[in-house]
Design brief:
Number of helices: 8
Shape: globular
Number of strands: 10
CATH class of the largest domain: Alpha Beta
Strand content: 15-25%
CATH superfamily of the largest domain: P-loop containing nucleotide triphosphate hydrolases
Structural class: alpha/beta
CATH architecture of the largest domain: 3-Layer(aba) Sandwich
Length: 274
């Protein structure tokens, strides 16, 4: 298929996917990103179109260099697109929005603050009273299984526990939109699986719009409503795959026949780029 025809076909699937969430929460329109280098311009993203419905969990998946993190950072307002536009709930993406939280690959916690103080910080910066911030922080520490660790110091925590603190902090302002950039990739497989189950449970209970970057096919299938597969050099959309697993998601679904079949479909989508 001609490249422009392929782009139009994939774009149509992105914007009209069969999902139950309603209303557009994130819209990416013809986003291109070009970096300047000593050897000339480097195209990181090539005319990306993406429409994510309110309450939908969408994963960006592809090999290194396909622009997944760059696209997420543009949506977060941390990186400026060379051309195209991004809107969240109908207004331009920018870094100072209070309705969006971002969780990064490695936990960024303040070592001089304890667990509770780290989780309270975003709400306090947004103007909540100390009492309101504490109540919200404790609520999400309880939800992430860390209620008994509120007074612990950061250095006392395992890697998985630090990521759970980061997750609680990202949720503590109750954002409608959650952006996650490979948040569990540095963890061991067992901890990663536990946190995936926890994240799926939180999504099923609260229904936040989530854009999730990962290299892990099994993880993407288990968590997502749709998976956007991407190719490198320049980064572009290969396909959009609907994940028709029932919700709420349970740990057993990760190894179900349906999940294995979907994982094979996802892998086949990007096989040529691996």
């Amino acid at each position: 298929m001609h490249s422009s025809m392929r782009r139009e076909a994939v774009s149509a699937r992105i914007t009209t996917g069969d999902h139950t969430a309603t209303g557009s929460a994130i819209r990416v329109e013809a986003v291109t990103k070009v970096y300047r280098s000593d050897s000339g311009p480097v195209a990181a993203l090539d005319r990306i179109d993406l429409d994510i419905a309110e309450g939908e969990f969408v994963s960006l998946l592809g090999p290194s260099g396909c622009g997944k993190s760059t696209l997420l950072h543009i949506v977060a307002g941390l990186t400026e697109a060379t051309s195209g536009r991004v809107s969240i709930a109908g207004s331009p993406a920018r870094a100072d929005r209070t309705d969006v939280s971002i969780m990064l690959q490695r936990p960024v916690l303040f070592p001089w603050k304890n667990v509770l103080e780290n989780v309270m910080l975003p709400a306090k910066l947004q103007g909540s009273t100390a009492s309101e911030a504490k109540d919200a922080a404790m609520h999400f520490l309880e939800l992430t299984g860390l209620g008994d660790f509120a007074t612990k110091q950061v250095w006392e925590l395992s890697g998985g526990m630090k990521q759970r603190v980061s997750l609680a902090r990202a949720l503590a302002t109750d954002p409608p939109v959650l952006l996650m950039d490979e948040p569990f990739s540095a963890l061991d497989e067992f901890t990663r699986e536990r946190l995936n189950v926890e994240l799926a449970r939180l999504h099923d209970e609260h229904g936040r719009t989530t854009l999730f970057v990962t290299h892990n096919i099994t993880e993407a299938v288990f968590l997502s409503d749709r998976i956007v597969t991407m190719r490198p050099r320049p980064g572009g959309v290969v396909d959009v795959i609907d994940i028709a697993l029932p919700r709420p998601r349970t740990a057993s679904q990760a190894t179900s026949a349906a999940a294995i079949e979907l994982a094979a479909e996802v892998r086949g989508s990007i096989a040529a780029y691996l």
